[in-house]
Amino acid sequence: MGSDMVVALQEASANRTTLFGVNHHASASERHALHLGHGQGHDSDELSPLGRLQIPEVRQTCAVLGIQPLGQWGYTHGVNEHCVAVGVTDWQSRLGNGEATLSGADLTRLVLERSHSAHHAVEVLTDLLEHYGQATPDGTSDDHIYLIADASEAYVLETCGRYWALLKCGHTRVVT
User: Fold this and answer.
1) With a cut of 50, which residues of the chain have pLDDT below it?
2) Could you tell me which residues are beta bridge partners of residue 79?
């Protein structure tokens, strides 16, 4: 299922606060939970707790508040302790599905746990895409759009497998 996502940076809001919103379209049977992940330090040899893939942990992860589909590890959207917000939605490109390993939700959680600004989140996400690829949990698609924002800047990252295109947002942006 897809999502409608919107960001309005400080310049565009009446109270000079960056606003980030997600309307996630899901079937009535698909349940989600609010999940608080605490930031923590990790040893250099620790691996991220993804069952099907071994990704090295970073030294320090950030605290994250995210919306988590029940039965999945990742988040459809969330915000971390540095006020970095990330949302993901599916889309379909003309390219065929490639070999992929991470879901869009997994990537969203990893980015939120590892980034301290919107620009840094883009760097983390593109690095993970290039190294591991992506897919939906059922493996039917590897195309996603990510909306990434912090208090002062926002980006849209359209992806297909390991490929991506980046747009730096102006004062407002809507993705649907």
Assistant:
1) none
2) 65, 85
